[in-house]
Amino acid sequence: MRAAPAALERVVPLLRCPLCGSGVESGESGVRCGRGHSFDRARHGYLTLLGARGRRFPGDSAEQVAARERVLGSGLFDAVADALAAAARDALLDRPRPVVLDAGAGTGFYLDRVAGDLVDVSGIGTEISVAAARRLARVNPHVAALVVDTWDGLPLTDGCVDLVQVVFAPRNPAEFARVLRPGGTLVVAIPGPGHLEPLRTESGMLTPAADKAEKLAADLAGAFEPGPVRVVDATAPVAAAVAVDLALMGPSGVHLDRARVEQDIGSEPRPVRVHVEVRSYRRSLQQ
Fold this sequence. Notes:
This protein is α/β, with parallel strands linked by helices. Helix content is 30%, strand content 26%.
């Protein structure tokens, strides 16, 4: 019998079966609901809770995840992590033993920063990529890693989360509203105008929609009330190897050839702009 990570055991009471919606209990190798649906915990520590449609998308590859770890390890996005941690601290001042969910958490870089600033926190990171989930499962002793498809819904009980954060990841506003406690907080990080320029243009990366902030506000209208906005906007020199990883680590990576990107970028450091908006929303008490 494999012992479950303490963080995972702590959040089991908050989980629900992704197939029938009933509660689950810990078992010998994972969790099981009262109707007999069972879900295995991987030896790497994450728990897979996919719905009836199973895995429709593979998520980021091992190569993309490794590239992301190198970029995040360079410090380029530290200011974004600081802004997310500040938003969480402000939102959870009066919430003892908070539960924080990072939907589409990747390797857990941002969730680790947020959880590290809080006392007696239960962190939950969801991710569809197995390669990312392996790293997420060991990023922080207070973080439980779940393999989940955000589009199919979240395997969590109603009103059990104090804060949901989404960093450059898919959003499911209805599910976020459902799992948040009344008055809970949703924190969303989106790219601002000019994010990752001039690298984005030079390397042929995909361009974010110009109306991201407006679309986000429209998607959240009714269930959420807008709150503070923290803006990170700085340009810094980036080593050529990091710039290549930056171009390949996200959605653009499946369309770009590494050798071609390396050729286009060359060997010299180059300036890259990090322009990110960290937007906070309060779950409406009327919902």
